[in-house]
User: Fold CCA-adding enzyme from Nocardioides aquaticus.
Amino acid sequence: LDRLRPVLDGLGKAFEDAGHELALVGGPVRDAMLGRAHTDLDLTTSALPDETERILERWGDVTWDVGRAFGTIGCRKGPWQVEVTTYRTDAYDADSRKPDVAYGDTLAGDLGRRDFTVNAMAVRWPGRAFEDPYGGIVDLADRVLRTPVTPEQSFSDDPLRMMRAARFASQLGFDVAPEVVAAMTAMADRIEIVSAERVRDELVKTICGRWPRRGLSLLVETGLADRVLPELPALARERDEHQRHKDVYEHTLTVLEQSIELEERLPGGGPDLVSRLAALMHDVGKPRTRKFLDDGTVTFHHHDVVGAKLTRKRMKALRFSNDDTDAVTQLVELHLRFHGYGSGEWTDSAVRRYVRDAGDQLERLHVLTRADCTTRNQRKAARLRRTYDDLEERIARLSEEEELASLRPDLDGNQIMEVLGI
Ligand code: ATP
Ligand code: MG
Assistant:
């Protein structure tokens, strides 16, 4: 918080001079307590948006008001980006997909309508008085997510908060209080009134968090995943012919974790949404395509193609961009291709086709396929990794040769002589 002091002392004074309260709230307070610094600051004030705008225009470099309908005015000053929102109070229309906006007049009232106690702490400026009416600091120390009011009340006010519980579990690695899990389980179907875009944004943050297994298993355990990403719990129900658990679901989470380890080799480093989604969806075709053979084994007929179709359908329903949808779908469709490689029958043109079909997704395909090489059998996994090393070496060699070839003229010596008539 000391780092924020210079900038907020000035801003707090500007609001005080105008007769208003100002407080830092939510993410930046929580993260400051966790020792993580923000340059994006969320603040709340007793001032109405017009007044906030006047104050910020005098104080900062650039001001914007895209969030005005929700009471938010944004402003940048040097490296700092601040968003100042007028105090809010509880006011939700049970049938609406978005919470209505109603302004409140106290900080305490504003904090009481926030999602989790660790997000309901504030520091008032000027003076830096710490406000924590719901014991957020204790929950932060215990690393647990709890709601300021009862979870039933909170989730009927805004069901998206159930998704946010999974998101913060994944980002912070916190536990979710048992009563919160119970309410999520009981109220999971309410998520259906929330717009696909809001659900998607929280899902993206869950998948891109540092501990995605935590958030995703919470979604599966509470039944929320059945509403927002049903392909995932379907994997947990996958069983073989003896009704033994096949653990495709567990395998999927392991592949996701392995692919996160490999993210640093991707151009943008991590977290990489496309790569993570591809890991999560790579086997979703399995439940639909499994066949039992006479010898008692199970095979999955073209689960890559079916998986790609299911992936596209889900990502469209969640309103992902076309680029992300195409990229993830392509990876799911190609993730099995490598399994034909070990037999030594891939010609140079098969390797070239692999590179061409992967296109821009080649690096991610390397990550996904390598992550998928993990199996419980360590020896087999090591052998698969070596085989993939071999494939990557061949790709490198071929593209080097192609580069050389592209430097050579299209015509050979005989053709040149023919053209010139010599
Ligand atoms: P991040 O670092 O990911 O931005 P954050 O805590 O700032 O995390 P935001 O989604 O930006 O999360 O929300 C800012 C704050 O607003 C939260 O800390 C929380 O107090 C409050 N908030 C946001 N969405 C909701 C919601 N749906 N219900 C209640 N409170 C919410
Ligand atoms: Mg934020």
Summary: The chain has a mean pLDDT of 91. The chain has 21 helices and eleven strands. The domain at 143-229 is CATH 1.10.110.30 (Hydrophobic Seed Protein).
